[in-house]
Amino acid sequence: MANSILTIDQITNEALRLAHEKASFIGTINRQFDSSFGRSDGKIGDTLRIRKPSQYTRRQGSRVMDVQDAEEQNTTLVTATQDGVDMKFNSRELSLDLQNFSQQHLEPAMAAMISGIESDVIQGCTKLTYNLAGTAGTPPTDLASTGAARAKLNQNLAPKDGNRCIQMDSVTMGGLVNGLKGLFQDSDQIKKQYREGMVGRTAMADFYENERVWTMTNGADVAGAINQTSFTNGLSTLTVDAYTAAPEVGSVFTIASVKQVHPETKASFSHDQQFTVTAATTTSITFSPAMYWEGARQNVDHQPSNDDVITHVGSASTGYVQNLMYHKDAFTFATAALPMMADAAKCVVKSYDGLSVRVWQASDIRNDEMLTRIDMLYGYAAIRPEWASRVTS
Q1: In the chain, domain spans
Q2: What is the model's pTM?
């Protein structure tokens, strides 16, 4: 029996299936906010404010109550980036069965689109991650680095609920797998949960091989000092000196002897608090997280001082792979349902598991071709960046 012409619904469903399968990072982070965008019943526009839990300090003993104001924190999720891939098919190609059509056309097209989106999202999320484990320039061959990253998640109270993952480039993964051959679990349960790139599970995390992890190249100078004498609790910008070139956005640094504290007990850890650069010049650094040395949001043991030395991880002008360990709820990704064009005879929008795709077709009668565009409107945000840690290589 002759093949029938593929319908736009078939093409949309297959495009969505491929997008879901190939999203190894996006597929492992929070996508619960997807349904908030593009609704017909009271749209919220392209911006959603996500509440974060309030923090408090405890009162000891039976003394007079010390009632604290609830300081609501939030982060903003914006779905404002539109990516797509465009194709054209002739009548003969549209008469292929779905499997052959998918292999020849849809799979390479969706691979290109999702690869680009994943690259942008994982790079953006990594830049917002300030915890870092490992030794810059030394690829891990055992569990020491990943164990240190696991400890950072634990110290920042990330849930131990089976929802932790790590994304690694294939070179780093190759060395690690060779050193840990007997530790990765190859169970039926993992096979059922298969997603492209998954290697196995150990050290409380699912391991994924992903060539899109970000390689950060440090700026031409990685050592500076604070150049200010007045500090306000909650500061996120420092005046600095001794830099000959601005630090790179995403560079991780510490301030001499400024220790991290436990989020609840406020007891000091033995290591310095780490920060990531979000903007910089040779005389000013804006960073995350904001620095608190008192109150419920305290995250360091004391305020910094003038002339405190600032040290960045790694050497100047050198690139380091930034593998990423994270809890699912450290980051979120959302797609918005793009509108169905009123004058389009063939326009379909479908969603599955937090991914929304629009396929729009129109014929070109002169060339006997069907023009097809596949679009995704998305955004991402770091909800709890403290629940993630880079593993440098």
Answers
A1: 8-55+72-126+331-346+361-381, 130-215+321-330+388-392, 219-317
A2: 0.85
